[in-house]
Amino acid sequence: MSRPPLTFIVGTGRCGSTALSDVLRLHPSVLSLSELLTTLEPGALPDGPVDGAEFWKLLASSRPFADRMIREGTPVPEHLYAQRPGRFTGTAGVPALCLTTLPHLTDDPDALFDVLRPELSRRPSGPVAGHYRALFDALSARCGGHAVIERSGFSLSLVPRLRQHFPEARFVHLHRNGPDCALSMSRHPGYRLLAMTSQLAEEDGENGEKAAELGRRLADDDFDVSAALRHPLPLERFGTLWSRMITEGVAHLDALPADLRMSVAFEDVLADPERELTRLAEHIGVRAEPDWLRAAGLLLDAGRPADRAAPPTAAQEALRDSCAPGTRALTAASARDQRAREPGGPARPDRPDRTLRNLESSGGH
Q1: Which residue blocks in 175-312 are alpha helix, DSSP H?
Q2: What is the three-class DSSP state of 24?
Q3: Residue 327 to residue 242: CA distance in whole angstroms
Q4: Residue 355: helix, strand or coil by DSSP?
Q5: Cβ(263)–Cβ(29) under 8 Å?
Q6: 173-226 confidence digits (pLDDT tens)
Q7: Residue 146 · residue 31 · CB < 8 Å
Q8: Phi and psi at residue 61, in whole multiples of 5°?
Q9: Residue 352 CB coordination number (10 Å)
Q10: What does residue 289 show for φ and ψ, rounded to 5 degrees?
Protein backbone atom coordinates (compact mmCIF):
# COMPACT_ATOMS: atom_id res chain seq x y z
CA MET A 1 0.00 0.00 0.00
CA SER A 2 1.39 3.40 -0.95
CA ARG A 3 1.97 5.87 1.80
CA PRO A 4 -0.56 8.76 2.03
CA PRO A 5 0.94 12.21 1.50
CA LEU A 6 1.84 14.50 4.34
CA THR A 7 -0.98 16.92 5.16
CA PHE A 8 -0.88 20.26 6.96
CA ILE A 9 -4.04 21.60 8.59
CA VAL A 10 -3.67 25.36 8.77
CA GLY A 11 -5.77 28.12 10.28
CA THR A 12 -5.87 31.23 12.41
CA GLY A 13 -6.05 29.36 15.69
CA ARG A 14 -9.11 29.39 17.98
CA CYS A 15 -10.99 27.88 15.04
CA GLY A 16 -11.69 24.38 16.40
CA SER A 17 -8.37 22.96 15.24
CA THR A 18 -7.43 21.41 18.60
CA ALA A 19 -10.73 19.52 18.51
CA LEU A 20 -9.89 18.35 15.00
CA SER A 21 -6.46 17.12 16.15
CA ASP A 22 -8.20 15.13 18.89
CA VAL A 23 -10.57 13.65 16.31
CA LEU A 24 -7.74 12.69 13.97
CA ARG A 25 -5.82 11.05 16.81
CA LEU A 26 -8.67 8.53 17.06
CA HIS A 27 -8.10 7.32 13.48
CA PRO A 28 -6.01 4.11 13.40
CA SER A 29 -4.18 5.14 10.22
CA VAL A 30 -3.32 8.72 11.25
CA LEU A 31 -0.33 10.10 13.10
CA SER A 32 -1.84 13.29 14.52
CA LEU A 33 0.82 15.92 15.25
CA SER A 34 -0.55 18.80 17.27
CA GLU A 35 1.11 22.22 17.49
CA LEU A 36 4.50 21.08 16.19
CA LEU A 37 5.52 23.80 13.77
CA THR A 38 4.17 26.95 15.38
CA THR A 39 5.63 25.85 18.71
CA LEU A 40 9.03 25.65 17.02
CA GLU A 41 8.72 29.10 15.48
CA PRO A 42 10.64 31.26 14.83
CA GLY A 43 13.16 29.23 12.94
CA ALA A 44 11.10 26.08 12.42
CA LEU A 45 11.90 25.97 8.69
CA PRO A 46 15.45 27.19 8.00
CA ASP A 47 16.40 27.42 4.33
CA GLY A 48 19.98 26.17 4.63
CA PRO A 49 21.18 22.68 5.55
CA VAL A 50 21.20 21.67 9.21
CA ASP A 51 22.65 18.63 10.91
CA GLY A 52 20.96 16.34 13.40
CA ALA A 53 22.40 18.12 16.43
CA GLU A 54 21.06 21.47 15.21
CA PHE A 55 17.65 19.96 14.45
CA TRP A 56 17.48 18.34 17.87
CA LYS A 57 18.40 21.66 19.50
CA LEU A 58 15.40 23.20 17.72
CA LEU A 59 13.11 20.48 19.11
CA ALA A 60 14.62 20.47 22.60
CA SER A 61 14.94 24.21 23.22
CA SER A 62 12.41 25.73 25.58
CA ARG A 63 10.13 28.69 24.86
CA PRO A 64 10.55 31.55 27.38
CA PHE A 65 6.92 32.71 27.32
CA ALA A 66 5.60 29.16 27.72
CA ASP A 67 7.96 28.58 30.64
CA ARG A 68 6.91 31.85 32.26
CA MET A 69 3.22 30.96 32.03
CA ILE A 70 3.92 27.51 33.51
CA ARG A 71 5.82 29.11 36.40
CA GLU A 72 2.87 31.46 36.94
CA GLY A 73 0.50 28.50 37.16
CA THR A 74 -1.48 29.80 34.17
CA PRO A 75 -0.13 27.83 31.21
CA VAL A 76 -1.45 28.33 27.70
CA PRO A 77 -4.36 25.84 27.31
CA GLU A 78 -2.72 24.02 24.38
CA HIS A 79 0.41 23.20 26.40
CA LEU A 80 -0.61 19.74 27.54
CA TYR A 81 2.67 19.03 29.32
CA ALA A 82 1.74 21.47 32.08
CA GLN A 83 -1.48 19.52 32.74
CA ARG A 84 0.39 16.32 33.63
CA PRO A 85 3.93 17.54 34.29
CA GLY A 86 6.97 15.30 34.06
CA ARG A 87 10.61 15.96 34.82
CA PHE A 88 10.81 19.24 32.92
CA THR A 89 9.71 22.42 34.67
CA GLY A 90 8.95 26.00 33.81
CA THR A 91 12.03 26.98 35.82
CA ALA A 92 14.53 24.76 34.00
CA GLY A 93 12.61 24.93 30.72
CA VAL A 94 10.22 22.57 28.94
CA PRO A 95 11.43 21.39 25.50
CA ALA A 96 9.27 22.76 22.69
CA LEU A 97 8.57 19.24 21.42
CA CYS A 98 7.18 18.30 24.85
CA LEU A 99 4.80 21.23 25.26
CA THR A 100 1.98 19.82 23.11
CA THR A 101 3.17 17.44 20.38
CA LEU A 102 4.40 14.52 22.48
CA PRO A 103 1.72 14.69 25.24
CA HIS A 104 -0.88 14.60 22.47
CA LEU A 105 0.51 11.20 21.44
CA THR A 106 1.52 9.51 24.69
CA ASP A 107 1.02 9.55 28.45
CA ASP A 108 4.82 9.41 28.89
CA PRO A 109 6.25 12.25 26.79
CA ASP A 110 9.54 12.23 28.70
CA ALA A 111 10.28 8.64 27.68
CA LEU A 112 9.40 9.30 24.04
CA PHE A 113 11.57 12.43 24.07
CA ASP A 114 14.53 10.39 25.35
CA VAL A 115 14.06 7.70 22.69
CA LEU A 116 13.98 10.27 19.88
CA ARG A 117 17.14 12.12 20.94
CA PRO A 118 19.85 9.70 19.74
CA GLU A 119 17.95 8.74 16.60
CA LEU A 120 17.53 12.33 15.39
CA SER A 121 20.60 14.08 16.77
CA ARG A 122 23.08 11.87 14.93
CA ARG A 123 21.61 12.49 11.48
CA PRO A 124 23.94 14.01 8.85
CA SER A 125 23.61 17.55 7.53
CA GLY A 126 20.87 18.15 4.99
CA PRO A 127 17.62 20.01 4.25
CA VAL A 128 15.40 20.42 7.29
CA ALA A 129 12.53 18.63 5.53
CA GLY A 130 14.54 15.40 5.70
CA HIS A 131 14.92 15.75 9.46
CA TYR A 132 11.20 16.35 9.88
CA ARG A 133 10.43 13.27 7.81
CA ALA A 134 12.78 11.26 10.04
CA LEU A 135 10.89 12.61 13.07
CA PHE A 136 7.57 11.65 11.49
CA ASP A 137 8.86 8.14 10.72
CA ALA A 138 10.15 7.69 14.26
CA LEU A 139 6.84 8.80 15.77
CA SER A 140 4.84 6.62 13.36
CA ALA A 141 6.92 3.59 14.34
CA ARG A 142 6.25 4.16 18.03
CA CYS A 143 2.78 5.72 18.09
CA GLY A 144 1.14 4.23 15.01
CA GLY A 145 -0.41 5.86 11.98
CA HIS A 146 1.10 6.09 8.51
CA ALA A 147 -0.76 9.19 7.29
CA VAL A 148 1.01 12.16 8.89
CA ILE A 149 -1.23 15.13 9.70
CA GLU A 150 0.41 18.18 11.26
CA ARG A 151 -1.99 20.73 12.73
CA SER A 152 -0.93 24.00 14.28
CA GLY A 153 -2.91 27.05 15.24
CA PHE A 154 -1.79 30.43 13.89
CA SER A 155 -0.25 28.62 10.91
CA LEU A 156 -1.73 30.28 7.80
CA SER A 157 1.36 32.43 7.35
CA LEU A 158 3.52 29.29 7.11
CA VAL A 159 1.86 28.01 3.91
CA PRO A 160 4.45 29.38 1.44
CA ARG A 161 7.37 27.99 3.45
CA LEU A 162 5.64 24.65 3.97
CA ARG A 163 5.06 24.42 0.22
CA GLN A 164 8.73 25.25 -0.39
CA HIS A 165 10.03 22.54 1.94
CA PHE A 166 7.32 19.91 1.38
CA PRO A 167 6.18 20.30 -2.26
CA GLU A 168 4.25 17.01 -2.14
CA ALA A 169 2.15 18.01 0.89
CA ARG A 170 -1.57 18.60 0.90
CA PHE A 171 -3.27 21.39 2.83
CA VAL A 172 -6.54 21.74 4.70
CA HIS A 173 -7.76 25.20 5.69
CA LEU A 174 -9.89 24.92 8.81
CA HIS A 175 -11.79 28.11 9.52
CA ARG A 176 -14.52 29.36 11.78
CA ASN A 177 -17.01 32.22 11.74
CA GLY A 178 -15.00 35.40 12.22
CA PRO A 179 -16.72 37.03 15.21
CA ASP A 180 -16.81 33.73 17.12
CA CYS A 181 -13.15 33.12 16.40
CA ALA A 182 -12.12 36.67 17.31
CA LEU A 183 -14.08 36.51 20.56
CA SER A 184 -12.26 33.29 21.46
CA MET A 185 -8.94 34.97 20.66
CA SER A 186 -9.81 37.78 23.07
CA ARG A 187 -9.95 35.21 25.92
CA HIS A 188 -6.65 33.49 25.10
CA PRO A 189 -3.38 34.74 26.66
CA GLY A 190 -1.27 34.21 23.56
CA TYR A 191 -3.62 36.11 21.28
CA ARG A 192 -4.09 38.88 23.83
CA LEU A 193 -0.34 39.43 23.87
CA LEU A 194 -0.26 39.24 20.08
CA ALA A 195 -2.94 41.93 19.89
CA MET A 196 -1.09 44.06 22.43
CA THR A 197 2.13 43.74 20.44
CA SER A 198 0.27 44.75 17.28
CA GLN A 199 -1.19 47.77 19.07
CA LEU A 200 2.22 48.83 20.38
CA ALA A 201 3.76 48.40 16.94
CA GLU A 202 1.13 50.74 15.51
CA GLU A 203 1.86 53.29 18.23
CA ASP A 204 5.62 52.98 17.66
CA GLY A 205 5.45 53.48 13.90
CA GLU A 206 8.86 52.74 12.38
CA ASN A 207 10.56 52.84 15.78
CA GLY A 208 9.19 49.55 17.15
CA GLU A 209 10.71 50.01 20.61
CA LYS A 210 7.58 49.40 22.70
CA ALA A 211 6.65 46.17 20.92
CA ALA A 212 10.25 44.92 21.08
CA GLU A 213 10.47 45.74 24.79
CA LEU A 214 7.28 43.79 25.50
CA GLY A 215 8.70 40.77 23.68
CA ARG A 216 11.96 40.96 25.66
CA ARG A 217 10.25 41.26 29.04
CA LEU A 218 7.69 38.48 28.72
CA ALA A 219 10.05 35.88 30.16
CA ASP A 220 11.22 38.07 33.06
CA ASP A 221 9.77 37.15 36.44
CA ASP A 222 9.78 40.80 37.49
CA PHE A 223 7.39 41.65 34.65
CA ASP A 224 3.72 41.48 35.69
CA VAL A 225 2.39 39.38 32.85
CA SER A 226 -0.99 38.96 34.58
CA ALA A 227 -1.49 42.72 34.58
CA ALA A 228 -0.50 42.83 30.90
CA LEU A 229 -3.08 40.19 30.08
CA ARG A 230 -5.76 42.20 31.89
CA HIS A 231 -4.99 45.26 29.80
CA PRO A 232 -8.28 46.23 28.10
CA LEU A 233 -8.39 45.69 24.36
CA PRO A 234 -11.41 46.38 22.15
CA LEU A 235 -12.94 43.29 20.57
CA GLU A 236 -12.62 44.76 17.11
CA ARG A 237 -8.83 44.57 17.43
CA PHE A 238 -9.17 40.79 17.48
CA GLY A 239 -11.56 40.96 14.54
CA THR A 240 -8.97 42.96 12.62
CA LEU A 241 -6.32 40.40 13.56
CA TRP A 242 -8.55 37.55 12.32
CA SER A 243 -9.36 39.38 9.08
CA ARG A 244 -5.70 40.07 8.35
CA MET A 245 -4.72 36.44 8.91
CA ILE A 246 -7.61 35.14 6.79
CA THR A 247 -7.05 37.56 3.92
CA GLU A 248 -3.33 36.85 3.73
CA GLY A 249 -3.85 33.12 4.29
CA VAL A 250 -6.45 32.75 1.54
CA ALA A 251 -4.01 34.39 -0.88
CA HIS A 252 -1.33 31.89 0.12
CA LEU A 253 -3.71 28.96 -0.34
CA ASP A 254 -4.95 30.23 -3.71
CA ALA A 255 -1.38 29.93 -4.98
CA LEU A 256 -1.46 26.15 -4.39
CA PRO A 257 -2.69 23.64 -6.99
CA ALA A 258 -6.41 23.11 -6.45
CA ASP A 259 -6.04 19.35 -5.94
CA LEU A 260 -3.64 19.88 -3.02
CA ARG A 261 -5.95 22.02 -0.90
CA MET A 262 -9.38 21.92 0.62
CA SER A 263 -11.39 24.15 2.94
CA VAL A 264 -13.40 23.04 5.96
CA ALA A 265 -15.67 25.17 8.16
CA PHE A 266 -15.66 24.08 11.79
CA GLU A 267 -19.36 24.85 12.03
CA ASP A 268 -19.96 22.31 9.24
CA VAL A 269 -17.89 19.70 11.10
CA LEU A 270 -20.10 20.17 14.15
CA ALA A 271 -23.33 20.16 12.13
CA ASP A 272 -22.55 17.09 10.01
CA PRO A 273 -19.38 15.36 11.23
CA GLU A 274 -19.87 12.24 9.12
CA ARG A 275 -20.05 14.20 5.86
CA GLU A 276 -17.22 16.60 6.61
CA LEU A 277 -14.87 14.03 8.14
CA THR A 278 -15.46 11.71 5.19
CA ARG A 279 -14.47 14.56 2.89
CA LEU A 280 -11.40 15.20 5.00
CA ALA A 281 -10.38 11.53 5.07
CA GLU A 282 -10.57 11.33 1.29
CA HIS A 283 -8.35 14.38 0.93
CA ILE A 284 -5.67 13.11 3.33
CA GLY A 285 -5.67 9.63 1.83
CA VAL A 286 -7.25 7.43 4.51
CA ARG A 287 -10.51 5.53 4.77
CA ALA A 288 -13.39 7.08 6.72
CA GLU A 289 -13.66 4.12 9.11
CA PRO A 290 -17.22 3.78 10.49
CA ASP A 291 -15.93 3.24 14.03
CA TRP A 292 -13.82 6.37 13.73
CA LEU A 293 -16.75 8.44 12.49
CA ARG A 294 -18.89 7.28 15.41
CA ALA A 295 -16.17 8.00 17.97
CA ALA A 296 -15.47 11.38 16.39
CA GLY A 297 -19.14 12.35 16.55
CA LEU A 298 -19.27 11.48 20.24
CA LEU A 299 -16.10 13.45 20.97
CA LEU A 300 -17.37 16.52 19.16
CA ASP A 301 -20.72 16.32 20.94
CA ALA A 302 -19.00 16.01 24.32
CA GLY A 303 -16.92 19.10 23.59
CA ARG A 304 -19.89 21.43 23.12
CA PRO A 305 -20.37 23.58 26.23
CA ALA A 306 -23.37 25.78 26.75
CA ASP A 307 -23.31 29.09 24.93
CA ARG A 308 -21.73 31.97 26.80
CA ALA A 309 -23.16 35.45 26.95
CA ALA A 310 -22.45 37.52 23.86
CA PRO A 311 -21.01 41.03 24.09
CA PRO A 312 -23.35 44.03 24.01
CA THR A 313 -24.95 44.83 20.67
CA ALA A 314 -22.65 47.78 19.92
CA ALA A 315 -19.58 45.62 20.50
CA GLN A 316 -21.04 42.90 18.29
CA GLU A 317 -21.55 45.36 15.45
CA ALA A 318 -18.00 46.70 15.74
CA LEU A 319 -16.66 43.15 15.85
CA ARG A 320 -18.62 42.14 12.75
CA ASP A 321 -17.38 45.21 10.90
CA SER A 322 -13.77 44.39 11.76
CA CYS A 323 -14.29 40.79 10.57
CA ALA A 324 -15.94 41.84 7.30
CA PRO A 325 -12.76 41.80 5.14
CA GLY A 326 -11.92 38.28 6.27
CA THR A 327 -15.50 37.11 5.79
CA ARG A 328 -15.50 38.46 2.23
CA ALA A 329 -12.19 36.72 1.53
CA LEU A 330 -13.57 33.39 2.78
CA THR A 331 -16.76 33.77 0.76
CA ALA A 332 -14.82 34.52 -2.41
CA ALA A 333 -12.47 31.59 -1.81
CA SER A 334 -15.42 29.25 -1.24
CA ALA A 335 -16.95 30.32 -4.55
CA ARG A 336 -13.67 29.76 -6.37
CA ASP A 337 -13.29 26.31 -4.84
CA GLN A 338 -16.83 25.40 -5.80
CA ARG A 339 -16.22 26.42 -9.40
CA ALA A 340 -13.00 24.39 -9.44
CA ARG A 341 -14.84 21.27 -8.22
CA GLU A 342 -17.79 21.68 -10.58
CA PRO A 343 -16.66 23.36 -13.80
CA GLY A 344 -19.48 25.39 -15.24
CA GLY A 345 -21.72 24.80 -12.26
CA PRO A 346 -23.12 27.44 -9.95
CA ALA A 347 -21.11 28.44 -6.93
CA ARG A 348 -22.44 27.47 -3.55
CA PRO A 349 -24.49 30.28 -2.00
CA ASP A 350 -22.63 32.45 0.44
CA ARG A 351 -22.53 31.01 3.92
CA PRO A 352 -24.84 33.07 6.14
CA ASP A 353 -23.11 35.13 8.76
CA ARG A 354 -23.36 33.18 11.99
CA THR A 355 -23.96 35.29 15.05
CA LEU A 356 -21.77 35.12 18.14
CA ARG A 357 -22.44 31.57 19.30
CA ASN A 358 -19.10 31.23 21.09
CA LEU A 359 -18.51 27.58 20.30
CA GLU A 360 -15.50 27.00 22.53
CA SER A 361 -15.20 23.30 21.70
CA SER A 362 -12.21 21.51 23.24
CA GLY A 363 -10.63 24.79 24.26
CA GLY A 364 -11.76 26.52 21.09
CA HIS A 365 -8.45 26.13 19.27
Answers
A1: 178-185, 189-204, 209-217, 225-230, 235-254, 266-271, 273-284, 290-302
A2: helix
A3: 10
A4: coil
A5: no
A6: 999 999 999 999 999 998 998 888 887 777 766 555 766 676 667 667 777 877
A7: yes
A8: -70, 145
A9: 7
A10: -60, 130
